[in-house]
Amino acid sequence: MGLEAYLFVSLLLFMLGLIMAAARRSLIYVLIGLELILNAANLNLVAFQRFHPGGGLDGQIGAVFVIILAAAEAAIALAIVLNVYSRFGSICPDDMHTLRD
Description:
The protein has helices at 3-23, 27-51, 58-88. The protein is mainly α. 76% of the residues lie in helices and 0% in strands.
């Protein structure tokens, strides 16, 4: 498989994540969409590192850094989702109208 195949899969992951984050049907969908976008970035980092001659481990180190950031983001975001659910009784972003005041 060439670099183009990895980039195509990464583009599909990015577009699917973007659609899920933009649909805003539920906060869980938005979080999953953001995780898909981060995974698409990881795939790009590792693919470019693999096909770059003498690239070293820069892409893999970057991917591990993004995975650590994604884990922290998921933990904080899920805590926010639980707080929103306990306060509003729903996790739909459109139901949180009191946050706009």
